[in-house]
């Protein structure tokens, strides 16, 4: 069966075929990088095609996968200070009465992921999100929030299971500056000393001003046994729902106040959520992140993404 594509570019056709399961016989080990390079000049047409209502309705669960495969293989995330939103297009700014309170990540065209502690004291009617802009206070687009959910096993004192979901009123229109990030696979074991990217508009230093332009840093994951030997309270670290990243022995790049709820990304997938820490970038005090591969968390997330009706057993804000 041939595919009718918005524009008949071969690379786009092949990519779309892979996602929707067309009869084109391609290996499971697709070289998305090469295909993406071939389609680089045609991204706008691909995005326009995928944003057509008929396509969105027919391939609701699949078209985001294609966008992620196409854009993800050519994204450039720059370690350091100022970072264009195009490098981390899943990043959003969560706002309460227009005031920025936390970060978040785009998971689908309707669902955003953040930290539970960012939502626990707020009502959906008071929240909005800004996305598609590198600037904290202007640019991009604003979206209203319809519902907020906090993980039912979230513990405010210990920050265990610190994850929450935001559902938008209107679906997002994806572009090079607004794209979803794939979620880590269930029960994935995170290896120590591996680089990951954190981003957000939080404080530039402990006790200092918040960033007005999007920031990102490359940090490394830390073995749990080392994390529990750090200056953090051993009893406060839940290995099942948390992991650590940053530096064990000396100051290093880190997330800070205002970055909460934002993404930590490794190998192109979202592995965690900025959760808590003591100070910012202190030696012997690594940052702590919500472990999204934990089955208790992962299953809860998938339940919301796949169920049409709202689960009444979860906390609705």
TrEMBL record:
Residues 77-306 form the Peptidase S1 domain. It comes from the Eukaryota. CDD domains: Tryp_SPc (cd00190). GO terms for biological process: proteolysis. One of its GO terms (molecular function) is serine-type endopeptidase activity. Residues 1-21 form the signal peptide. It holds the Pfam family Trypsin. Keywords: Disulfide bond, Hydrolase, Protease, Serine protease, Signal, Zymogen. This is Trypsin-1. It comes from Papilio machaon.
């Amino acid at each position: 069966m041939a595919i009718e594509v918005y524009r008949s570019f071969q690379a786009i056709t092949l990519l779309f075929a892979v996602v929707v399961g067309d009869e084109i016989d391609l290996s499971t080990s697709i070289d998305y990088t090469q295909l993406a390079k071939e389609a680089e000049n045609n991204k706008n047409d691909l995005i326009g095609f995928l944003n057509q209502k008929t396509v969105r309705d027919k391939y609701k669960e699949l078209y985001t996968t294609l966008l992620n495969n196409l854009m993800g293989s050519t994204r450039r995330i720059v370690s350091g200070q100022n970072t264009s939103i195009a490098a981390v297009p899943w990043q959003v700014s969560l706002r309460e009465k227009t005031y920025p309170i936390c970060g978040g990540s785009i998971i689908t065209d309707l669902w955003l992921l953040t930290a539970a502690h960012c939502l626990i004291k707020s009502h959906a009617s008071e929240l909005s999100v800004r996305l598609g802009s590198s600037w904290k206070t202007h640019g991009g687009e604003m979206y209203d929030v319809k519902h907020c959910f906090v993980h039912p096993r979230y513990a405010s004192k210990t920050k265990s299971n610190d994850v929450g979901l935001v559902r938008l009123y209107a679906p997002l229109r994806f572009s090079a500056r607004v794209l979803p990030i794939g979620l880590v696979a269930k029960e994935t074991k995170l290896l120590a000393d591996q680089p990951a990217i954190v981003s957000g508009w939080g404080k530039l230093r402990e006790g200092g001003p918040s960033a007005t332009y999007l920031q990102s840093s490359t940090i490394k994951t830390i073995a749990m046994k080392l994390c529990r030997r750090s200056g953090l309270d051993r009893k406060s670290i839940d290995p099942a729902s948390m992991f650590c990243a940053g530096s064990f022995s000396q100051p290093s790049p880190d997330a800070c106040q205002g970055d909460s709820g934002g993404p930590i990304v490794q190998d192109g997938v979202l592995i965690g959520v900025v959760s808590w820490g003591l100070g910012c970038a202190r030696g012997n005090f690594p940052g702590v992140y919500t472990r999204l591969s934990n089955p208790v968390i992962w299953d809860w997330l998938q339940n919301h993404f796949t169920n049409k009706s709202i689960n009444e057993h979860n906390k609705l804000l």
